[in-house]
């Protein structure tokens, strides 16, 4: 028979520290409120949206099997040649791969980084793009194919560089901040940057959000006509939009006479803008891409006006899915920075690796979490104008890493394309894709995996 | 096409028959080294992008009204319009002179880096927006939001200025002879110095206007928006 025991003292729950975090007021929100209370100014930061949104990861490919056959991975050719600007330009852009470098300014990036991007692009047979701040000698000399942006600020914009460009990109908006202008904090406005932008040194520079000499699409059509007249109708003209009302905006860009439309989704990066913009304005790349393709198909412009998509394109799988959805090419910004060592815990200088962790700590962050491009104190020497810090990125090393990264993505792209039975990556099609989530199925308008169901399309 | 009354030093383009593209291609490619010093554009008919992207010293006379972006991105050339012009006349001009005998629509001289733009009549909204070193002289009035975010150069107005003049100004300086409806954020009226009076006299002489420098007031940036300030309100 069991013996009776003394009752144990009940655990005092009230004395245990509470671990219940509020959903509405979690540590992130409390930190935001207290930061706002302390400073009276919104947070400004670099890179793109950090929140989870439906993305290309939510799609998978249906490769060949019994119903259709795949191609041999190593023996059968899979073409990646990409031609952009065939609508009106006398000299369309011909690229070896459908992966390009997105517009990033000299100012946000050092001249050495711009050179690395140009060298890599040239070796890869792809294009690179200027940014809000004009064309540097370094990038023009190193880039075989250079796209020259025409932005609202028109910093450093001039007819000589326009004539030197291989294509012109009229930037209406950017995925990280559709409806907003650029920012460059004073610590990055050094004498060369200030000179190119015709601004006083060290000021906190705000770019305009609207173009100074046109407003609506009818005016844009005339602006494009002027740019074509100045450049003798030779160069393709791209129109870049930040993804919001993408369906309408793409139609208007086509109406305005664009040769190429660039759609930048909300995951796209920036060198500096308000966090509220980055996280809360614009729509995901996946949703925008489908809207853009719908607009082109309705106008019977698929293949006549090319579509470049950007904003969170990271891997060969992302590229393949973007192409299958209907893009002709993709553009990569943040991925290129990471390839060069952004958020790495070391940098490579004078033949040695150096520990950068203390420098990250000094600006209040750590490798893997850094979005401090706006400070100009990039611990790995990429998003800086500091003459000592910028030496941490050797243009040759940066170019090599970029080349490896893009080559890897291109190999992944052709691997997937061959598995789907395509001898040309541009033959990938929507029918090759299914979605893993209802949200992605609804946005991309492809069936939920294992079903015929496309939310909002077939029945319900 | 071209060729009416053409001599070695003078070429005529009649846009009632020739295309704007023919005119511009001539100005870009055939003009340099041709010895042509004078190009006359007849019957411009309000067409857009007339005489854009010139990169050579030449006198262009436009005999009538022009559309948008007349003489856009001009370098070295001297362009005179005997009529009115649409939006963005001499936009992003680098050097040379553009003179409009009539009125100019919106965004005249926008983002201009250099050279002189003279408008003998009035200029509409956003005259001199984002100007980056150009000198603009307006004989009449200018519309609202003129010299918005103007970075460098001078805007001289012999008549009145509209609302929000010089909003978010950087280093550009504005001189106004008449009334200013209102100043934009961070723009302020400042005292005229001897240097200002000399500059005004020089601009008036360039334009051929007979006013006195003492009649003008100076508007420039208060420079309070040059840096973000945690304590500042965010009204700009």
The H-level CATH homologous superfamily of chain A, spelled out, is Aldolase class I
Rg of Cα set of chain A: 24 Å
Please give the radius of gyration of chain B in angstroms: 19 Å
- Provide the residue-averaged pLDDT of chain B: 94
Number of helices of chain A: 14
Shape of chain B: elongated
The CATH architecture of chain B can be given as 3 Solenoid
Largest chain interface and its two residue counts? A-B, 34 and 46 residues
- Strand order within the widest sheet of chain A? 5-15-14-12-11-8-7-6
Poorly predicted runs of chain A:
none
Please write the CATH class name of chain B.
Answer: Mainly Beta
Q: Low-confidence stretches of chain B at least 5 residues in length (pLDDT < 50)?
A: none
Q: Tell me about the largest β-sheet of chain A.
A: 8 strands, parallel
Overall number of domains of chain B: 1
Shape of chain A: globular
Assembly level: heterodimer
CATH architecture group name of chain A: Alpha-Beta Barrel
The order of strands across the largest sheet of chain B is 1-2-3-4-5-6-7-8-9-11-10
Q: If you consult CATH, what is the topology of chain B?
A: Pectate Lyase C-like
Give an overview in words.
The complex is a heterodimer of chains A (460) and B (236). In chain A, a hairpin with an 8-residue loop joins strand 3 (82-84) and strand 4 (93-95). In chain A, helix 2 runs parallel beside helix 13, helix 7 crosses helix 9 and helix 10 packs across helix 13. Chain A has helices at 27-39, 111-124, 137-142, 159-164, 191-197, 217-230, 246-255, 275-280, 285-298, 316-325, 334-339, 357-362, 395-419, 438-444; strands spanning 44-45, 59-61, 82-84, 93-95, 99-101, 127-129, 145-150, 167-171, 183-184, 205-206, 237-242, 260-264, 273-274, 306-310, 329-332, 346-349, 352-355, 433-435. By secondary structure, chain A is α/β, with parallel strands linked by helices. Chain A has one domain (56-340, 393-444): Aldolase class I (TIM Barrel). An 8-stranded parallel sheet of chain A has the order 5-15-14-12-11-8-7-6. Chain A has a two-stranded antiparallel sheet with strand order 1-13. Chain A has a two-stranded antiparallel ribbon with strand order 2-18. In chain B, strand 1, helix 1 (20-30) and strand 2 form a beta-alpha-beta unit. Chain B has 236 residues and is α/β, with parallel strands linked by helices. The model of chain B has no long low-confidence stretch (mean pLDDT 94). Chain B has an 11-stranded mixed sheet, covered by helices on one side. Chain B is built from 2 helices and 11 strands. Chain B has a single domain, classed as 3 Solenoid (Pectate Lyase C-like), CATH 2.160.20. Chain A binds chain B through residues 39-41, 153-154, 157-160, 162-163, 185-186, 197-200, 203-204, 206, 208, 212-214, 219, 222-223, 225-226, 229-233, and chain B through 20-21, 24-25, 28-29, 48-49, 52-53, 55, 67-69, 72-73, 75, 87-88, 91-92, 94, 106-107, 110-111, 113, 126, 129-130, 132-133, 148-149, 151-152, 168, 170-171, 226-231, 234.
């Amino acid at each position: 028979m069991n013996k009776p025991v003394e009752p144990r003292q009940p655990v005092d729950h009230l004395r245990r520290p509470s671990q219940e975090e509020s959903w509405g007021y979690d540590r992130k929100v409390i930190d935001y409120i207290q930061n706002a209370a302390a400073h009276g100014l919104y947070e400004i930061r670099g890179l793109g949206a950090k929140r989870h949104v439906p993305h290309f990861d939510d799609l998978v490919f249906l490769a060949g099997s019994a119903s259709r056959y795949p191609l041999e991975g190593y023996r059968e050719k899979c073409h990646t040649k990409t031609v952009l600007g065939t609508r009106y330009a006398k000299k369309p852009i011909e690229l070896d791969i459908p992966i390009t470098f997105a517009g990033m300014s000299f100012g946000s990036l050092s001249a050495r980084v711009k050179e690395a991007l140009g060298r890599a692009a040239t070796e890869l047979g792809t294009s690179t793009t200027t940014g809000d701040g004009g064309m540097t000698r370094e990038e023009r000399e190193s880039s075989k194919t250079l796209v020259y942006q025409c932005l609202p600020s028109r910093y450093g914009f001039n007819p000589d560089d326009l004539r030197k460009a291989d294509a012109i990109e009229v930037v209406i908006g950017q995925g990280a901040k559709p409806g907003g202008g650029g920012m460059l904090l004073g610590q990055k406005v050094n004498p060369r940057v200030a000179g190119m932008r015709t601004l006083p040194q060290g000021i906190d520079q705000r770019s305009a959000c609207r173009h100074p000499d046109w407003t609506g699409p009818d005016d844009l059509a005339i602006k494009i006509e002027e740019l074509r007249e100045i450049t003798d109708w030779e160069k393709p003209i791209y129109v870049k939009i930040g993804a919001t009302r993408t369906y309408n905006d793409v139609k208007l860009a086509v109406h305005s006479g664009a040769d190429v439309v660039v759609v930048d989704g909300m995951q796209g990066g920036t060198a500096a803008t308000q966090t509220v913009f980055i996280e809360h304005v614009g729509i995901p790349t996946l949703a925008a891409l489908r809207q853009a393709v719908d607009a082109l198909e309705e106008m019977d412009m698929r293949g006549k006006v090319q579509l470049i998509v950007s904003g969170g394109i990271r891997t060969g799988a992302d590229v393949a899915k973007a192409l299958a959805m209907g893009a002709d090419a993709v553009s990569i910004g943040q991925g290129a920075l990471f390839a060069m060592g952004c958020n790495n815990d070391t940098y490579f200088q004078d033949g040695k690796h150096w520990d950068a962790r203390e420098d990250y700590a000094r600006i209040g962050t750590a490798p893997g979490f850094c979005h401090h491009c706006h400070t100009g104190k990039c611990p790995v020497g990429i998003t800086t104008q500091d003459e000592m810090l910028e030496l941490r990125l050797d243009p040759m090393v940066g170019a090599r890493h970029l080349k490896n990264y893009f080559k890897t993505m291109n190999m992944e792209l052709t691997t997937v394309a061959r598995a789907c039975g395509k001898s040309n990556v541009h033959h990938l099609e929507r029918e090759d894709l299914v979605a893993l989530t209802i949200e992605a199925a609804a946005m991309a308008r492809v069936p939920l995996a294992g079903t015929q169901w496309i939310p909002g399309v077939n029945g319900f | 096409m071209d060729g009416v009354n053409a001599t070695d030093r003078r070429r005529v383009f009649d846009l009632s028959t020739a295309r704007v593209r023919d005119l511009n291609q001539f100005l870009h490619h055939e003009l340099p080294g041709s010895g042509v010093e004078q190009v006359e554009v007849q019957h411009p008919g309000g067409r857009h992008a007339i005489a854009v992207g010139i990169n050579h010293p030449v006198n262009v006379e436009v005999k009538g009204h022009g559309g948008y972006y007349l003489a856009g991105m001009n370098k070295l050339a001297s362009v005179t319009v005997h009529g009115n012009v649409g939006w963005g006349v001499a936009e992003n001009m680098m050097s040379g002179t553009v003179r409009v005998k009539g009125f100019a629509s919106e965004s005249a001289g926008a983002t201009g880096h250099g050279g002189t733009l003279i408008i003998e009549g009035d200029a509409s909204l956003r005259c001199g927006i984002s100007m980056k070193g150009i000198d603009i002289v307006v004989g009449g009035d200018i519309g609202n939001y003129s010299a918005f975010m103007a970075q460098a150069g001078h805007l001289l107005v012999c008549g009145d200025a509209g609302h929000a003049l010089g909003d978010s100004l950087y280093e550009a300086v504005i001189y106004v002879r008449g009334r200013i409806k209102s100043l934009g954020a961070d723009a302020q009226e400042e005292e005229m110095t001897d240097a200002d009076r000399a500059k005004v006299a020089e601009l008036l002489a360039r334009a051929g206007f007979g006013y006195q420098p003492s009649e003008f007031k100076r508007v420039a940036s208060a420079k309070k928006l040059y840096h973000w300030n945690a304590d500042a309100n965010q009204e700009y």
